[in-house]
Amino acid sequence: MLTRLGFPLSLLLLAALAALLLALGVGSAQISPGQIMDLLQGEGDALARTMVMELRLPRALSAFAVGGLLAVAGALMQVLLRNPLADPYVLGLSGGASIGALAAMLGGLGGLAISGSAFGGALLSTFLVFGLAHGSGGWTPSRLLLTGVVVAAGWGAVITLMLALSPAERLPGMLYWLMGDLSYSRTPWPPLLLLLATCVVLIPLGRSLNVLARGPQQAAALGVAVRPLEWCIYVTASLLTAAAVTTAGSIGFVGLVVPHILRLLLGNDQRLILPACALAGGTLLVLADTLARTLIAPEQLPVGVITALLGVPTFLFLLYRSR
């Protein structure tokens, strides 16, 4: 069992380390892997050490944390809904978190207030989607997806209204942040610690999540406390989405494509999928952010644009392949 779980996770860990090494070395000034190791040990040129330790490393770690948070949140939503099309972006959680964060920004708040507002917006969006989609016949994939799309569209309209009423000097930064921006991510440790803590807590629940993925009635028959577990997934997915949105803005398709691809490759065991999503989602966003800041250097693209350009054709191909 440990061997079956450990081998793919070891490969994903090596890929994550390679992506981080690439992110530290590529940019306006190229730095070799040997120089990076010297800089991480406090040696080497002072200017290069400042560039790596104070600019590239915090941004790369933030990208890894955000990608992992979104991928794990998407995997949890797909287990809860038993639908591979579910993710925080499609179901409106990202939109709700964005509204909460933007409202806090417009109110002159910062720090924990923005994070708390984003979490409240994501949780509100979760309750709206599940409350509106739960009819007399229960949840169905089509009803949930349609409700999520409508709620996400509603959040988009509210965001547009907030932008229209915002002071002109704040618009460029708010627009860039809404497209996904890691330029000002300087404190990667809170989202990284949240990602690690979430994986540690959820992995022991892997068996229960595996049973829940087969349906609430079968899970209840096998002794799983369905309602508390569903609430745990609601709150956890909202918290992860809020942390990701607070750190990097609204980034789509990571939580949709990464769990979908990993299930095709590794199966549907949540004890493997959840930590694999953390590693693969983080690796994907590190590579996307590296591409975003080097593709048209010295100008930088929003990382959300890169993930959309990569995610849309990938998911269309997966849909075509699974006909």
UniProtKB/TrEMBL annotation:
Key words of the record: Cell membrane, Membrane, Transmembrane, Transmembrane helix, Transport
One Pfam family per UniProt: FecCD
GO terms for MF: transmembrane transporter activity
Stored Gene3D superfamilies: ABC transporter involved in vitamin B12 uptake, BtuC (1.10.3470.10)
A single cellular component GO annotation: plasma membrane
Primary localization: membrane
Keyword field contains Transport: yes
Location of this chain's protein in the cell: Cell membrane
Membrane topology, from the record: Multi-pass membrane protein
Residue spans crossing the bilayer: 60-81, 88-106, 112-132, 144-168, 188-207, 219-237, 243-265, 272-295, 301-320
Family under the similarity heading: Belongs to the binding-protein-dependent transport system permease family. FecCD subfamily.
Protein name, UniProt field: Iron ABC transporter permease
Lineage, uppermost ranks: Bacteria, Pseudomonadati, Pseudomonadota, Gammaproteobacteria, Oceanospirillales
